[in-house]
Amino acid sequence: MRDDTRLTHLGRDPANHAGTVNTPVYRSSTFIWPDTGTLENHLQQADDPHYRGHIYGRNGNPTTAAFEDAVAQLEGGFRGLIMPSGLAAIVGAVLAVARAGDHILVTDNCYWHARQVFDQVLPRYGIQATYFAPMLGADIAGLLRPNTRLVYAEAPGSSTFEVQDIPALAEAAHAHGALLMLDNTWATPLFFKAFEHGVDISIHAATKYLVGHSDAMLGVIVTTEALYASVRETVRQLGYIASADDAYLGLRGLRTLGVRLRQHQRSALAVAQWLQQRPEVAQVLHPALPEATGHALFKRDFLGSTGLFGVVLKPVYAPQAKAFLESLQLFAMGASWGGFESLIRPQQRHPSAHIEPGVLLRLHVGLEAVEDLIADLQQGLERLSVTPLALRNLS
Ligand SMILES: *Cc1c(COP(=O)(O)O)cnc(C)c1O
């Protein structure tokens, strides 16, 4: 079956839920047992990763399990583990596979808060991370150390949008006995099939496109069969779980993921191409544009692009950039992305970013009419040609 059909069926089981179309919200900390035999039966199997019975809320319930299964099946992994946020998924997965004395090679264009975990939290537990230039590909072999346990990738990076060679990173890591972990939030399980490309563990900030409506925090880890039991054991021992209400929002988001992403894709590309023609713009960072770093890899490995990309404005005075951002009516300034609404924000460059000088911004193109979005950006960009002195008089 094709993905659009699977998106309407994954994680649903009407026969076991009174015929209701959607898997209901099971608000549950406690499951009770009718007799001591059932109790013993549950407890004996509690540590078996293949056991699907429910014992205690922290181990999940039918709603969280439905979300885990749906995401894992869509991505082509073995099984998923629901997490309270995308960052918790990163931390939980890394702690599940790395131990004191291990080394991790991290892509230099990774999500900023992941970088803080690698730099500030993990060293306290004896895990050391160093960074590699995102386009290194197979040459990463030269950086692998005897104690390198994990290569951590994010393709494309969510601040500067280089598309990495995931199969080459996987091959080099595996030849060395290391694992490849991927933050697949940008492409989602719909547009990048991580497990066909050699990934061992993928994580998603489901907060973004999977939930899709800017109204819940959620994460998920998906693994191969070989890793599932040990990753599950660690993340549940650490106490990570998400609520059934948020799992329900994740499942509901999945139903429209295909239609939403196709509109995000179409509109973001139109906005990106329009921006490329503007005199105020130095560079547009969008994996689906032929000029993009790693575009050939994007075409080879990805099934589509989404609504998040970067733009570098030619150098302007700070008050001009401020006036541009504050003039926008449809692009709100805000953290996060992946909801139905358009967002814009200034963005940090990672140390090895080879991009033009100027003001780096990140746009999330939402589901509004693209003509309105372009008109909004146009009136804003026109303010950049006004000098700061004239701006003061204007405001
Ligand atoms: C937002 C984000 C995360 C973290 O997800 P949260 O749910 O906010 O914790 C991780 N990776 C990427 C690429 C993100 O954009």
UniProtKB/TrEMBL annotation:
GO terms for molecular function: cysteine-S-conjugate beta-lyase activity; pyridoxal phosphate binding. CDD domains: CGS_like. It catalyses: an S-substituted L-cysteine + H2O = a thiol + pyruvate + NH4(+); L,L-cystathionine + H2O = L-homocysteine + pyruvate + NH4(+). Its cofactor is pyridoxal 5'-phosphate. The modification N6-(pyridoxal phosphate)lysine is found at K208. Residues 1-15 have a biased composition (Basic and acidic residues). InterPro entries: Cys/Met-Metab_PyrdxlP-dep_enz, Cys_b_lyase_bac, Cys_met_metab_PP, PyrdxlP-dep_Trfase, PyrdxlP-dep_Trfase_major, PyrdxlP-dep_Trfase_small. This is Cystathionine beta-lyase. It comes from Pseudomonas aylmerensis.
